[in-house]
Design goal:
InterPro entries: DegV (IPR003797)
Largest sheet: 2 strands, parallel
Radius of gyration: 17 Å
Strand order of the largest sheet: 1-2
Protein name: DegV family protein
Helix content: 10-25%
Region (Disordered): 29-51
Organism: Actinomyces urogenitalis DSM 15434
Distance between the termini: 48 Å
Pfam families: DegV
Number of domains: 1
Order of helices and strands: EHEH
Length: 51
């Protein structure tokens, strides 16, 4: 059985550290919402919840 350690590019892992420990870094792309605002993982504001 093999095991892989994978993270996304949002982890800001230095490339040398990832290489040294055999960690695969995959790109994380965000897509803006329909209204042009950037996608976010933060909690929505009260105004956004009311919509």
């Amino acid at each position: 059985m093999s095991l892989a350690v994978v993270t996304d590019s949002a982890a800001c892992l230095p490339p040398e550290l990832a290489r040294r420990h055999g960690i695969e870094v995959v790109p994380l792309h965000t897509v803006p919402g329909a209204d042009g605002t950037p996608a976010s993982t933060s909690r929505p504001s009260v105004e956004e919840l009311r919509r």
